[in-house]
Every structure is written in structure tokens, then in C-alpha cells.
Amino acid sequence: MKTVSEEQTTKHHAIRSFVRREGRMTAGQKRALSELLPRFDISQQSKQKQKDFFDSSRPVELEIGCGNGDAVLAMAESRTEHNFLAVDVHRPGIGKLLIETESRQLTNISVSDLDINILLTNVIPDGSLFRVMIFFPDPWHKKKHHKRRLIQVPFLSSILAKLIPSGELHIATDWQDYADHIVNVLEQIPALHNVSENGSYTSRPTHRPETRFERRGLKLGHEVFDIITRKSS
Ligand SMILES: C[S@@+](CC[C@H](N)C(=O)[O-])C[C@H]1O[C@@H](n2cnc3c(N)ncnc32)[C@H](O)[C@@H]1O
Q1: Residues 16, 22, 109, 77, Cα dihedral to 10°
Q2: What share of residues in the chain are helix, strand, coil (percent, to 5)?
Q3: Continuous H helices in 69-189
Q4: Residue 39 phi/psi, 5° resolution?
Q5: Hey, what domains does the chain have and what are their CATH numbers?
Q6: Could you tell me the pTM of the whole model?
Q7: CB 180 within 8 A of CB 148
Q8: Catalytic option among 41, 55, 115, 138
């Protein structure tokens, strides 16, 4: 039984940053969602287990919008001493991630198929995250859809509260216009310091794997912008 649900979306988050599309799901993904999700889903764990996940001595990294989970799988394999929480409302992607988590016998990944705003309100404690990663968020490139963009001041203020002192927020996008918007929004949150020398973008750090949407953007000739900020200590 889920302890939190999508109905708990607050009024503040009435405008969603996503459109739920179940699309085609393989038999394996369906099995993973019914059999493995209860085991790996943070919101289905007891309050004590959630507390243990966030309170452990292991740094916790949150990936928001993990898609099929390729990046979080690579990071969990290379940073075995860290815990990872991978979140995406796209259930076929979560199904794929669960299949791989089980077959690679990874024990440092938890997942959720809920809107991240629900987890921020109900599950993730303040001051608990070592790093938050948002790789290639939906750009909602039409002006009339800009209000659907995930990266907005109130959202980043909630992320700031969840970071530990000196915790990192790492965003990447292949849309120049969204990258400029993100830098602009970040400038309104002085407690998040941009680590790049000129206060804008960096190149991809080696600890960030290339993602599926990134490869798609690169094929189209897009430039990629990494924006890394650190919370005041
Ligand atoms: C463009 S895809 C990028 C996927 C992956 N990070 C990559 O680079 O290949 C953005 C993802 O964010 C997810 N997403 C958007 N808003 C979300 C929200 N509020 N909570 C959780 N996931 C969300 C979407 O479902 C989608 O899978």
C-alpha cells in the first residue's frame, strides 16, 4: 500500500511538468512494476526504513526524471558507497530500471514513480541530500508552455531545503533557451552558488554519464549545458 499518492499533489503544483504516457510496456516491465516496485519503491517503505535510507552514513544522490535509468545505473555501479534515489513518472522507464537493478544485483538504488513534488513534500527529509541531479528536463519549448517547466524558483527553493550544507545541484540541458532560464532562476536563489568561473555553464564532468536524451540532442547538433551549483556550507 502506497503511503503517499499522486492525489496528494498540492495546489501549488497543480501545473504539472509532465504528461503521463504509459506507452507500450513489455511483459518484463509489467512484471517488474508489480513484483519489484514494492521492494525498491521508497514511498512504499515503512517510515523507519525511509529514515534509515536518508539517515545512513552513505551520501544520498537524487536523480529527478531518470528516464530509463541508464545514468543512475552507471552512477550506482561506479559510486557503490553512495545511495541513489531515482524518480520518474514514466512507469515503463521505472520498469526497465528495476529489471536492470535486479539483474546487476545493485543494492544502493531506490526508486519512485511519483511526481517529485510529492516526494519533496512527504518523503525526503530536509538537509538529507548530498547531490540532486536533473538531466535533460522536458524543455517545454513553446512560450505558452514555459509555465510547465520543472525548474522554477519555488521548486528550487524546495530542493535547496533538502540539500545538506555544501550539497550540490547539477542540471544539464541541450536547450540554450532553457539553460538561460535555469541560470536566471538560480540567480534568484543566492544560497546556491554557481561553481562555473563565469557563473553560467560548465562542460560535462566525468562523474556524469551521457544520457539517452543527451545523445538525441547531440545527434540534432544541439550544444549541451551543465549547470552546477553548491549550497552554502
Ligand atoms: C526529457 S526526459 C529525460 C530523461 C533522462 N534524464 C535522459 O536524459 O535521458 C525528462 C523526464 O522527466 C520526467 N519528469 C518530468 N516531470 C517530472 C516530475 N515532476 N516528477 C518526476 N519525473 C518527471 C519525465 O517523465 C521524463 O521521463
Answers
A1: -110
A2: 40, 20, 40
A3: 70-78, 91-103, 116-122, 153-162, 176-187
A4: -80, -35
A5: 24-125 (3.40.50.150), 128-233 (3.40.50.150)
A6: 0.94
A7: no
A8: 138
Three cell numbers written together for 119? 516526494
Take residue 106 and report the three cell numbers written for it.
545493485
C-alpha 143/C-alpha 19 separation (Å) is 17
Q: Position of cell 528495476?
A: 98
Report the alpha-carbon distance of residue 53 to residue 76 in Å, rounded: 15
Q: How far is the CA of 89 from the centre of ligand 1 (A)?
A: 7
Report the separation in Å between the CA atom of 87 and the middle of ligand 1, taken as the mean of its atom positions: 8
Cβ(94) to ligand 1 under 6 A? no
Mutate to test the pocket of ligand 1, among 88, 91, 123 (most ligand atoms within 8 A of CB): 88
Query: Tens-digit pLDDT profile for the chain (233 aa)?
Result: 444 554 554 444 578 888 877 778 999 999 999 999 999 999 999 999 999 999 889 999 999 999 999 999 999 999 999 999 999 999 999 999 999 999 999 999 999 999 999 999 999 999 999 999 999 999 998 888 889 999 999 999 999 999 999 999 999 999 999 999 999 999 999 999 999 988 899 999 999 999 999 999 999 999 999 999 999 99
Nearest in space to 26 (alpha carbons), one of 96, 80, 114: 96
Amino acid letter, residue 159: I
